[in-house]
Amino acid sequence: MTKPELPEDLVEEILCRVPATSLKRLRSTCKRWNRLFNDDGRFARKHLDKATKQFMVLMLTNQYSIGPVSIDLSRTIPSVEVKAEYSLIDPQPEYSAKLDIERVIHCDGVLLCTFWSNMSRIVVWNPLTGEQRWIRTGYRSQSGRAFNIGYCQGDNKSCNKSYRVLSCYCDIHNFEMYEFNSDTWRSLGDICPGWRLRPHVSVSLKGSTYTFAEDETKTPPNLSLLKIDYSTEKSVPVPLPCDQGIEYEESTLSVVREEKLALLSQRDEKSKTEIWVTNKIDETTKAVSWSKVLAFDMSPDLRISDFGSFLLDEEKKVLVYCDTLFEDDDYHRDIIYIVREDNNKVIEEEFVADKVDLCSQTILNYVPSLDKIKQAKAQGKRKRGDD
């Protein structure tokens, strides 16, 4: 006797609530399911709306690959362990070698990666589905050049976002945008007039890039936060909590559960290190409010830097901070610094990252997604600057 099959709409309702990582294993169950996961953009949007989000900690390993990391805080002394490594192989047949990842930006389930040895190409990559989009950056000067990723807010209602890559420089007010649909770079001119960017200190949140910048119209220049909108191709300043007459010497950014910005700041060597989180970012009025989550004294030989990165569990009040500390010209050490509250007491633990096979300056929360990456046409247009 043949077992009755569930109606297709009921099967879809069940599957769209299954975590993304589990769906990856289910894709080979039957052809119908595989088509649903891979070809039906409508299902991807439905899954994004209804499935519980998963959060994975990713870090760069000492082999310059991406590694999922397990951080166990239940022990008296927390443990940090690399679970696996995701490598990127150069797709050009004449090379076919592993590329060393330099920098990673996370945007809604996809990663933008740049490389140490080859700045002529970057890649947008979905580690869950394995999809990759390799992008030539042209032969312009690479010194001080940084890349960020976002998408148009108007495209957020569609299943496949129209991703875009932004190219910018620290000292040159010249911005370029790469569009996936046209497979071309185009000049935007100066979209941040009067500001000197720190483009390597930036995060992506809800399709926009948030980056530190200095107001060049003031002496000395004031540190502020800029939001770069990929729909309007304009920037707007975002008030920092330290805009209330307080000037912080070192600051870095993170994202909390894809909903909020987090700021880690230290005014000077003698000041407490503070963590602030946005309560609300009003897209209409641009009003922003912040709350202080944690304040603590780092150990005497530690100090945060613009090149460090961190993750924050706002609910549990746990901070994981990673950085490279330079003792002198010939010696440095990579550290992982964990700060947590226990019975209203701040507890700090320090790890030497080399002992857990990690590079310490990149840590991020990755949210697995079924989002598809639009591929370039086989006979795409050539970009300006590739001649």
From TrEMBL:
Q: Return any one Pfam family short name.
A: F-box
| CDD domains hit by this protein | F-box_AtFBW1-like
Q: Which residues form the F-box domain?
A: 1-46
User: Which PANTHER family does the UniProt record give?
Assistant: BNACNNG10540D PROTEIN, F-BOX PROTEIN CPR30-LIKE
Q: What is this protein called?
A: F-box protein ETP2-like
Organism of provenance: Camelina sativa (False flax)
* Gene it is expressed from: LOC104748322
